[in-house]
Specification:
Elements (H helix, E strand, L loop, with lengths): L1 H6 L3 H14 L1 H9 L15 H4 L3 H13 L4 E6 L6 H18 L3 E6 L7 H8 L1 H9 L4 H17 L3 E4 L8 H49 L3 E3 L2 E3 L14 H4 L4 H4 L3 H22 L1
Helix pairs in contact: 2-5, 5-13, 6-9, 7-8, 8-9
Length: 285
């Protein structure tokens, strides 16, 4: 409320701005976590609005900061009572898959409120799309038809997700939850750590490429000879137009690696842009 009042924002703007401000101080949170040496697990509760945390720049910075510091597992909590509606169930599966592929981290689907409704129906729907289609037949609507089509596509993605049923009220299933999280840590080391190493290598390679481009530009400005494609180009040659400091071959030169950039490079650029936007935000503040 204080952020909404101070910056004259609505509820959504207040949440996003609060998260942005929190992200700028997240190094202090990591320092606090480093002092927690007597615990086996650290639970970090994120904002319930998925679009605010998962798909915002500040949310990405926070999740990446934690994942680079500690073995991290995402726990996606779904309401077992509400998911008895197959359309709502499919929405949760779509959210779970999007979070998993956005963060690249191991994910556990936590089916909460099993003290009210048993979660076995949801597990069956995840494992057998025909059973799920039968449930959709009992709810004929446009949304049901859409969910049916989505299940045919997403089934291969969510059928093998780790699941655990638990109750936050009674504590039922908590032991199974922590066992599942412990097993998911192996995936963190097998998949995320190599990805992180590739990301760091990509950053170093891009820095090196940028330095080389800057050195080439410096030589061009000095009128020195620049080697491109194993051919020496003398910038003092009369054949080169004086209207440009760059020879034609250098002007048309493109680094093919830029066109082959993968998701790792895109994520690096996204993080860099996010950090720059926060810096501008703080300067304005």
């Amino acid at each position: 409320k204080e952020v909404m009042r101070q910056y004259q924002l609505g509820p959504n703007g207040g949440i996003i701005t609060s998260l942005n401000l929190f992200a700028t101080k997240f190094d202090q949170v990591l320092e606090i976590l480093e002092k927690k040496t007597d615990v086996d697990f650290i639970l970090v509760d994120t904002p319930g609005q998925i679009e605010v945390f998962t798909w915002s720049a500040s949310g990405t910075i926070i999740s990446d900061a934690i994942a680079r510091s500690y073995p991290t597992v995402i726990a996606y909590v779904m309401d077992t009572v509400r998911c008895t509606n197959p359309v709502t169930f499919m929405s949760n599966m779509m959210y779970a898959c999007s979070i998993m592929y956005k963060t690249r981290l191991p994910l556990v689907v936590v089916m909460n409120k099993i003290d009210v409704v048993d979660n076995s129906y949801a597990v069956d729907w995840m494992k057998d799309f025909e059973t799920f289609h039968e449930a959709l037949d009992a709810h004929p609507s446009y949304s049901s038809n859409l969910s049916r089509s989505m299940s045919l596509v997403l089934d291969e993605f969510y059928k093998d997700l780790r699941t655990v049923g638990m109750s936050a009220v009674t504590g039922q299933g908590c032991t199974d939850f922590f066992k599942t999280v412990s097993s998911a840590v192996e995936e963190y080391y097998d998949d995320y750590v190599p990805y992180l190493e590739d990301l760091r290598a990509t950053i170093e390679r891009r820095k090196q490429e940028q330095m080389e481009k800057q050195m080439k530009k410096l030589k061009v400005d000095k009128g020195e000879e620049v080697l491109l494609d194993d051919n020496a180009v003398d910038l003092t040659d009369d054949k080169i137009s004086t209207s440009s400091n760059l020879p034609p071959s250098f002007t048309n030169y493109h680094d093919d690696s830029d066109h082959d950039s993968d998701d790792v490079e895109e994520k690096y650029e996204e993080s860099a842009a996010a950090e720059e936007s926060f810096a501008r935000f703080l300067r304005k503040k």
